[in-house]
User: Which sequence fits this backbone?
């Protein structure tokens, strides 16, 4: 089992992920491919993700992934050809997008155009700059993401990462946007984007999504009720030691009657099935 240079932990095996899923009450998850060198040294190909879904169909769906320089390193590369190929092999979306380019770079715009054309939802990881980070780049206030959502209304974007979810509060700054802000939430830029763009979806995985809805319980419950049709529970399991509180917290809020049955089921299950069983 390969180890990651940063923390000397190895990636979780399918058996270890299944053990986590059983503990947390999760039926199936999504394997996302890691093709971008900006993300790290270990590349997981589309073919490997496909094979994992074939070998462990009771545990995994899969997303394919493409780098905007693939093909011809040109803004007129026909990515639909490749997306349709992977879609026929069972890929349910594209991601996690971690290449370190501006969202409105012509190469990136071309890839997103074809994702919209092929009706493939995209999970994005937002970063603050080119260099020193992984993820597609946007500024404070997410103006480039808004332009993308407006330009391609058929493109479903699943937002992810600290630089995405920290924008849920109006108090976010250049210094705090990559962190896990605490305290009461005054609705910020992200709420405006959810209100205005029905093609924006929310991936609640990892510490960033978890923190967004748990840091201010009253606000988090309101946000989940308000946008219950476009939020997705996730974990972001990468190593055997990873732990998350969001699932048990959602269970508790529903059991206490603070999160409606409709919102709970949509966020935890039926929204995902709308994509993964489509």
Assistant:
């Amino acid at each position: 089992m390969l180890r990651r240079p940063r923390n000397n932990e190895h990636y979780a095996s399918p058996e270890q992920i299944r053990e986590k899923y059983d503990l947390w009450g999760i039926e199936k998850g999504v394997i996302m491919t890691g093709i971008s060198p900006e993300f790290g040294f270990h590349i997981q190909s589309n073919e490997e993700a496909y094979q994992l879904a074939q070998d462990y169909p009771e545990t995994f769906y899969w997303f394919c992934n493409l780098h905007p320089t693939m093909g011809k390193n040109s803004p007129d590369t026909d990515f639909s050809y490749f997306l349709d190929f992977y879609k026929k092999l069972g890929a349910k979306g594209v991601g996690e997008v971690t290449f370190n380019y501006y969202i409105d770079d012509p190469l990136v715009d071309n890839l997103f155009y074809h994702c919209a054309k092929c009706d493939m939802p995209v999970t994005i990881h937002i970063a603050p700059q080119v260099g020193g980070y992984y993820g597609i780049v946007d500024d404070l206030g997410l103006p480039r993401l808004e332009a993308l959502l407006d330009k391609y209304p058929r493109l479903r974007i699943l937002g992810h990462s600290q630089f995405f979810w920290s924008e849920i509060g109006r108090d976010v700054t250049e210094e705090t946007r990559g962190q896990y802000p605490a305290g009461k939430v005054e609705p910020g830029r992200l709420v405006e984007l959810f209100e205005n763009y029905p093609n924006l979806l929310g991936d609640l995985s990892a510490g960033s999504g978890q923190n967004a809805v748990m840091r201010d319980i009253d606000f988090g419950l309101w946000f989940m009720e308000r946008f219950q049709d476009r939020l997705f529970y996730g974990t972001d399991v990468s190593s055997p030691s990873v732990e998350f509180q969001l699932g048990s917290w959602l269970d508790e809020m529903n059991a206490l009657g603070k999160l409606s049955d409709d919102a709970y089921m949509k966020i935890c299950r039926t929204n995902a099935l709308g994509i993964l069983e489509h």
Notes: The beta strands are 29-32, 60-63, 94-97, 122-127, 136-137, 157-160, 200-203, 231-232. Residues 184 and 218 are 9 Å apart (CA to CA).
